[in-house]
Amino acid sequence: MVSYCQAHLRPHLENPKFQNHRLVEPLRDIERRTCEAHRRPLELYCNADACCLCQDCAKDEHHGHSTLPVTDARRDIEKELREKQKEMLKTVTAAENAINKLQTNTVTIENSVTEVRAVIVQQFSELQVAVERAQREVMEILEGEEKQAVSQAEGIRAHLEQKCSELKKTQAQVEKLSKNKHDIDFLQEYSEWRKDSVDVSLPGVYIGLMDRLTAFSQVVTESTHELCAVLLSAYRDKLKETCRNDKLGIKTTVHAIIAAQNHSSVPDPKTREDFLKYATPLSFDADTVHKFLRLTEENRKATNTTPWQHGYPDVPERFEHWRQVLAAESFYLGRHYFEADVSGEGTHVGLTYRSIDRKSQESNGCIAGSGFSWCLQWNGRGFSAWHGDVETPLKVEKFTRVGVYVDFAKGELAFYGVGDSVALIHRYQAEFLEPLYPAFWLSKKENVVVLVNPGDSLPLKSPSPPPTPPAEPWPPPQQQ
Q: Distance between CA atoms of 235 and 464, rounded to whole angstroms?
């Protein structure tokens, strides 16, 4: 292939000897279409090395490789691209359908929650009516006790008043009798008086109402405490168990468009180079980072600076108790891989749902305690895997770089130690219901996590500092 100016092109247009020469439009980038080694046109395509080559290349370094003329190769590749476009169109269509379905479901969820909220209000209104009714009945019992006590006291008082009147009358008779100076008359009057005299003894009076009222109050207080305990546990425990077992049943079916045979035809990664094919560059989400963690290096490095706090704005997404941070990127469908350099005992690396509680002091707000989180911890002596508050101690060597691999469709999550090669540390099998977010818990002062760009070289030496005293105990203390 040669380029000509207008003057040198004229013979090819006018001389019959050059009529069999094929002329084409001038090329702007002829150097790109010429072999740098042999200065010959790039006419062939090597399927093995996915590159264009000249005839001499096909005979030399690409000898024995499967080659095609560039036109045939383009035709085959365009056919393959058309198939991929069809697959991508199916994927986009399925994703749009899923989005529409989720939007519809959102309205349905809001309506359903409104209905359930009305039921809850009604039930608690009935409960309030029952409490008010119980209060009225208890007050009626108390008023009955009051009336009975008052009536009893009135009866005793009337009896005592009558007795007192009789005693005063007897006292007057005795006084009159003692004034009689004649002995015979005195004795005769005394005998008559004695026959009609009344009992001068008085009944003992004991008012036991206060004892009964104290017992009454104690019964009401104890019953109230028992009912409150039963009431709270009945709602809280049963609802928690229901939510834990049901998982709300929200799923998408976008992954259904990935044919099982196509997925199974792709071999599982074995080497670091294999894993890096699925690598995703990550950065920390500044809206989620705890105030004791400092972000640097374009939000790719997190450091625990306890007790120094940072002036991050208060937003709902920020972790308030656990010193954690999420990545800004998420993993959903397909295969994904990332690497992180970890420093210091008490550093945790894992994955979680975005719905993890950000404000709770309970274990469900920590990636080691949540039932929807999976993480790996370096404790200064070895690694442990954590999921749902359950620790699995692992007997593996120390690594300062951890690789995390996810196959969403298979429900597979694996942690690898990254060195000259990759070594499996632990693998989880689960059913993922939501997109997964890389999550990190830096539980102690000077813990450091650095998100590694795909393919970055390993650190020259271990970044782990000397052991430090615990800053956050795990498991967390029981709440009183």
A: 47
